[in-house]
Please model this.
Amino acid sequence: MTFRTRILLATVPVVLVPLIVFGLGVRRGMRQQIAGQYRGRVAALVDLIGQDLERQGTLLATRLARLRTAAAADNRFRLAALAQDTLQRGYALDYAGTAMRIAGLDMLQIQDDSARIISSGHFRNEFDRIERALPQLLPTAPNGMALIQARTAEGPFFALARLDSLPLGDRLFTVVGGITVDSGFLARLARDSSVTVSLVLPHATVSSRPPPTAARRAEEVVSELPVPFVAAQPDSAQLVPARLQVATPLTGLRELVGTVDLWFVIAVLVTLLVTVLLAAWLASRLSRPLAELAGKTAEIDMDRLDVEFASDGADEVGALERLLGQMTERLRDGTVRLREVERRAATGELARQVNHDVRNGLAPLRNVLRHLAQVARDRPAELPKVFAERRQALASSLNYLESLAANYAKLSPPPDAQRCDVNTVTRETVEQLPAGPAELTTQLGSGVGEAKIDAIALRRILENLVSNAVEALGGQPGIVTVSTTRSEDEGASDAIRIVIEDTGKGMTESELEHAFQDFHTTKPGGVGLGLSIVRRLVTDAGGRLRVETSPGAGSRFIVEVPSLEGPA
Amino acid sequence: MLAVCCARAPVVVSPPAPAIDPCALTRDSASVPERLYIALSGAVDPGHAPVPTTEAERFVFPQVFETLVRLDCTETLRPVLAESWRGEDDGRQWTFTLRPGLRFSDGSAVTGQAVVDSWIGRAAPLPSGAQLTAGNEREIVVRLPTAVSNPRLFAAPAFAVTRSIAGKEWPAGTGPYAADTTGGSITVAPYGRTGRPVIVIRPPAGDDARDLVDRGIDLLVTDDAVALSYAADRPGYATVALPWDRTYILAMPLGASLVDGSVRAGLARDAVRVEARAAGTATWWSSNDCGSAAPPSPAPAPGLLRKALVYPSDDPTARDLAGRLVALGLVGAEGPRATGLGGAEFNAALASNGASAYVWALPVGPLEPCEAVRDLVARAPWLGADPARYLTALVDVRRRAIVRRGGAAFTVEWDGTLRVR
Model:
């Protein structure tokens, strides 16, 4: 995970979590506050409804008192009620209906002292039915008023009723009047269409509005007002508590919470967006110098210590860059010192080689001169003859030294391309090299011909590669094979291939990777310039050098030098 | 009743006209006014002619369209277009002889063939299997599938003689009046015969019939007790009882109710606010001699009305009766509730047997009981072959006519139909 991603991931929760906590807290507090307001509003409405019911009761009492007075004054009704005058019976049957309409009531029934209905306004043909519950229970209700279930031909209905007495002669009639309690009545009590007033009875419920769903009901603020109800059963009747239930939905709260939720979500999204952008910017600001620092650091190598780490930043990255600069500086100094050491070591080896080569060249001269001196001292006369005999040896040694000097001189500038017979140089070089316990063989191909390379350079190449191959056997018996052929690679048929192959320990990839680097050696006392020189000599001659090796399977050095004779 | 009507009958000819019309509504007519104001409910639609469907049509159509014979208030067959009739083949064939010189209101002659064409053209409800021929210029021969003692069937409005006139809303009739529709109002004016007033139909004013009396109405047919009482107190008016013309019945698909004689009397006395009497138990639908194969009784249709005692919502008497039956619990201990239905809904419920009980009115005595039974069963197929099993007669009702004294003279028919004399 990148440093930038980590910054992004860390920044988002750091910003959002407090915001969400804040939003939820505000939402909860607002909900409690508004719900409290709703509860207060419902409680006030319940009080108002209670006052309305009291006014209705008072109004009912007034109307019933007037009806009582009018009925007592009506002789036709009196005749029908007291004298059972059949001629006036129809008048009595219709009396309650007419009176009910005049008084603005919804139910009215007049009962005699045996509780028999003698006239019913809301159910004209219910006459003669015995109805004992209302005369018995209504007077006992609080404020003399209660809910009742009245009958009509079309079905029952609920009414808020009260009772008055009508004394006629020596009989006491009762007048029960009421107003319908239906959805319209409850809606008028509710006043506000958003408020639901329900009459909850043991066996039924009437509401000012269609009942809400269970889910909506759970979001209501509810308060109740007890109302007595005359529950009449076929064999008994009693006053039971009914309830006027006032419920107001938390619609406003729900809408407000919804709005808050919406804006909260928008705020979170905007914050998230801004946070991501800011975090990306910040991460970029932070990671760019680090990335640049990493890039510079990646450029550092033994050959590339000129990378500059210069920063005037006062922050940690600046300090880090300065530290890296100091470290690079120290590394650069160390490398210089190391190269100096290596150069010195290489010079020493070269001096030893030169010393060795010069000694090899001087030894015949010394022997010839010692022989000539001995002859001049002991047999002076033979000196010319002996000189003539040894003159060729002197010339050969001097030529050798001259060539040696010329070749050393060529270490720095590339030698001029010359021709040499590859097989001859190979044979001569291999014969002169010590093999130790190794079996050193040559497989010189016919028709190999001459190569476009200096013979000394080829000899140096072969000496180094064959010596390395012998040394790769580690003093153990093995085979070192030097073969020459015309190259068989496509496109390289104008080259001569020389292959030095051993059965030694081989090289790892790592060893192979460093094998051609200057001053890299795995041999005790080695200077690490052999293969480097070989590669340079081959390259200078316009040839190619390849290595095929694997640990434990030996190595195969393939030298391809340009053929002087063209394709075979 | 059918047993009486179907007894082996002698050949009958038209009876002589009585010296004093026993069916005259009033006997103190002094002068004939130029205009006769009649208050009747309902519209007059010439498309219904000559069979009335409203109170207004019930008065207007008989003035315009006549039948061969009529049945007066004493249920005596009287001649109208036919001057005589005779029965043959033990009452299976009847030959009517038209009065000479009869003409339709458009001037065309009324012949035997015109009568036949009129009946066939309107698909008059002849008994199934009846044969109808024009004997000669003035004769119509009707051969019935069953013998009848008298041809009272042909006094029904459906056997009025009419003649369609191209381009005219109203067909031509043979009565003393001709009707026309002009500018949306109905004109019923006399033609060809003098001494008759123009008839002006006035709809009832609001809900109070007394206002019509106060405006000088000549004839008002009503069952409003308050209006009747009011008119009775007015010296210029007389109230005359019309024949008992409707019987309210209770139909219960689950069987007859416990409505006995005392209950019927109580219903007639207290439950209804019109003039009523306890219905008799011998009703025209009790006969099972009609010989018609009734369809099987369908199962009760499920629906919201299964616990409802339904009645026509425009019939306050039916509503009163339904309410009283509910109050008495005679149609179920816990219901059903009384529910008023509009005409189409009521007929639909009746046809599908969709309610638990029904209250509505039927004619007290139809001209042809078997035809009436068939009509009834067609209306309520679930009554099946034995309607009496489900039907209970409750009360008979009648209306009264409020007639202005000294005004036009009216004659009342057996079914309460009024004619201007």
Notes: Chain B touches chain A at residues 225, 269-271, 273, 319-320, 322-324, 326-327, 337-340 (CB under 8 Å). The domain at 2-22+48-53+61-175 of chain B is CATH 3.40.190.10 (D-Maltodextrin-Binding Protein; domain 2). Residues 1-10 of chain B have pLDDT under 50 and may be disordered. Residues 316-328 of chain B form the longest helix (13 residues).
